[in-house]
Amino acid sequence: MKGVFSSPSAIYSRGLQNHLLPNTTYGNESGGDPLVIPDLTYEKLQEFHSRHYHPSNARFFTYGNFPLESHLAFINEYVLSRFTFNEDYKKCSEISEQSKWSKPVHKSIESQPDPLAPFADKQTTVSVSFLLENITNTHENFT
């Protein structure tokens, strides 16, 4: 993890995503923030795992030329039938939409210069980003 947390471009892209979508799952580090991980207790880790890695949250993707009904029966017999469906677990894995801001937000993300770039001491990255509507709202997003 040390490498990805020291790469200037990775720091920038993660920072942008964290600031743009702070109230969603995308506002968090998927592998955990190394500065916060030491505060995680074993009990909290177990609780998180039982909620988020439960078959109630599963999505099954299949591909190939085989009878779908027998394949689904196999999944049910060897996976799903061994667990009790939990609606609360399913809800906790839903990705919520980021609430809209009432005014523009300005953020600064700092990192070390890229040592492999020419003129490493004169680097600046500027980004103007917009939080759009839900991806299915093409009319609002592209007009």
Automatic annotation (TrEMBL):
Annotated GO CC locations: mitochondrial matrix
A Pfam cross-reference name: Peptidase_M16_C
GO molecular function, one term: metal ion binding
Transmembrane segments annotated in the record for this chain: none
One of the protein's GO biological processes: protein processing
Gene3D superfamilies reported for this sequence: Metalloenzyme, LuxS/M16 peptidase-like
Every Peptidase M16 C-terminal domain range: 39-142
PANTHER family noted in UniProt: PRESEQUENCE PROTEASE, PRESEQUENCE PROTEASE, MITOCHONDRIAL
Name under which the protein is recorded: Peptidase M16 C-terminal domain-containing protein
Organism for this UniProt entry: Medioppia subpectinata
